[in-house]
Specification:
It is built from eight helices and ten strands. It has about 325 residues and is α+β, with helices and mostly antiparallel strands. The chain folds into two domains: about 200 residues, no CATH class; about 90 residues, no CATH class. Strands 1, 2, 3, 4, 5, 6, 7, 8, 9 and 10 form a ten-stranded mixed sheet that branches. Helix 5 runs antiparallel to helix 6 and helix 6 packs across helix 8.
């Protein structure tokens, strides 16, 4: 197989379920039922979480190595799935494991379908070039588009949302994209996390070959969820213009964070012990939870001050 055996790459798109209040676990499960005859994973604790079965998407395309004269072709399957957390946060995920093909000839599709979630790299494979290509913010035109496959899973869930329900007019939050690249190494290395623009984030990490790919994907989804929560609440606080707008107006803009988001923070909730270790390292470097705590406390302080002001105004003089 070669040195690409545990080059796991994927992308997660995270956004708000459109058009209505949070759904029950039963309702959410019906939206992610994307594969006929396959069961939907459904969890009630520690928070509502439903996830579709994985379905394979066949690909035969360039992998996007930066040297055109040494272009590498990838043939195989990407695994696609969708999930809903807390009844109203939807994620679409696409991921695969890259391996070196044993020959240069294309095999029958039965060969690739026997190894779901694996893409064989055909050509003069340079692992470092492939890694850098997937970890770069921009992907070459025509190259493997994991983001497009992830977006399709999310869009299928969004399109299945029934009409009706109370509209959340003041809660308009953007979708974010997290791309993850997991390299094989003799020893584990610390994960790196970079924010490239309003939407794209890239996480890279080196792990031993025995790390289970599905746990790595679960960690990527968990990281994407919490980055989206943090990004969303930062945006809500910014739009509240605390200290610049009248307090009642600021509190009105902050209220959706309290109603829909603050209770969902639970990092390292998926991916087992491996996720816990990776989160611990990321927390030391990126301080996700400390930043979340500062935002949460600032929001709570505004409501506390508002409550005191309202009580004072209501008391007889």
């Amino acid at each position: 197989m070669g040195v690409l055996d545990v080059l796991v790459v994927g992308e997660v798109h995270t956004g708000l379920l459109r058009g209505r209040d949070p759904m029950s676990a039963r309702e959410a499960a019906s939206l992610v039922d994307l594969v006929a005859g396959e069961p939907v994973l459904r969890l009630e604790r520690p928070r509502s979480y439903v996830r579709s079965p994985e379905r394979p998407v066949g690909v035969d395309c360039p992998l996007g190595a930066p040297a055109p004269a040494r272009q590498v072709r990838g043939i195989g399957t990407v695994l696609q799935r969708a999930a809903i957390t807390g009844g109203h946060i939807v994620q679409g995920t696409a991921w695969t494991t890259l391996t070196r093909a044993t020959g240069s000839a294309r095999q029958p599709w039965s060969h690739y379908l026997a190894r779901l979630g694996v893409i064989e790299a055909v050509g003069r494979v340079q692992p470092t070039e492939l890694t850098e290509a997937f970890a770069a913010p921009d992907r070459a035109a025509g190259a493997l588009d994991l983001g497009g496959i992830a977006a399709l899973a999310s869009d299928l869930v969004q399109s299945a949302v029934p009409a009706g329900g109370r509209s959340r007019e003041r809660l308009r939050l953007p979708r974010t994209r997290l791309r993850f690249v997991v390299e094989q190494g003799d020893t584990a290395g610390p994960p790196s996390f970079a924010v490239h623009d309003d939407q794209l984030r890239i996480m890279r990490v080196t792990l031993p070959a025995e790390a289970p790919p599905r746990l790595l994907v679960a960690f990527g989804e968990d990281l994407a969820l919490h980055d989206w929560l943090l990004t969303s609440v930062i945006g809500i606080v910014d739009r509240a213009a605390i200290g610049a707008l009248p307090r009642d107006e600021s509190l009105g803009r902050l209220r959706p964070a309290v109603d829909y988001l603050l209770h969902l923070w639970l990092p390292a909730g998926r991916g087992g012990e491996l996720a816990g270790q990776l989160w611990e390292t990321l927390e030391r470097r990126a301080a996700f939870t400390r930043q979340w705590a500062l935002l949460r406390d600032r929001i709570r302080d505004q409501f506390a001050v508002g409550a005191v002001a309202a009580l004072s105004a209501a008391m007889p003089r």
